[in-house]
Amino acid sequence: MVSKHFELNLKRFLAAASDEFAAGTSPATRRTAQMLRSSGITIADTPRTPIHGNDAACSPPDEINMLLGREPQSACLTAAASVYRELDWYESTKSHTPYAEIIGPSSLIRSLELRFGLFLLYSDIVYPDHQHAADEVYIVLAGTGEWSLNREPYQDKTTGAIIDIPSLTVHAMRTAQEPTLMLFSWTGVDISFETYQFC
Ligand SMILES: [Fe+2]
C-alpha cells in the first residue's frame, strides 16, 4: 500500500515529466509525453520486480540529495525530490547503476508499452556501447553527463538536455566528477530486454 500523500506527489511528478518530454520533437518524446499524461495512478496489486531478476535492491542513492538544490532546478526535479525516497531502487547487474522504474511491465504502475523512471549515473562511470530494440529517451534532470551515439565523439549534456536514442542505435554514456540524474523512457515495438546487448 502506498500513502495518499505519495500518490499525489507521484501524480505531480508524472505530469511534470510529461511536460519535459513534450519539449522534445521526436516520435519517442511525443509518445512518452502522451502516455505519461494518460497514465492514471493505478498501483499494481501484484508484487513489483526489478527489470532483471537478479538486480539487487538498493537504497535511494545519496547522490540525488546532493544534486537537489542545484540551479537551475526544474519543476520536474522538485517533483522528483518529493517521491524518490519512496520508490523501488535497484542496482542494475548490467550497468552497475541505480534505477527506479516507475512504469513498466512489472513496476509500480503497469504498462506493456512504456518503461519510465529515474536513472542515476554515479561520477566517474563509463556505461559502454550497447543497443536495444526499444526507442530510448533520456532527459537530464541534474548534473552533467556525456553521450556518444553511433560511436561518434562524446557530447556534454546538462540539465534539460533531451537525448533521443532511436531503436538499435549504438550508444554509450559516461560521467566525470559529477553524477547525473535522468528521466528515462523506453517505447516502441519492443520494450523487452531480449535484444539488449553490449557491442
Ligand atoms: Fe540504452
TrEMBL record:
MF annotations from Gene Ontology: dimethylpropiothetin dethiomethylase activity
InterPro entries assigned: DMSP_lyase, RmlC-like_jellyroll, RmlC_Cupin_sf
Transmembrane segments: none
SUPFAM superfamilies found in the cross-reference section: RmlC-like cupins (SSF51182)
Entry-linked Pfam families: DMSP_lyase
Protein name as annotated: Cupin 2 conserved barrel domain-containing protein
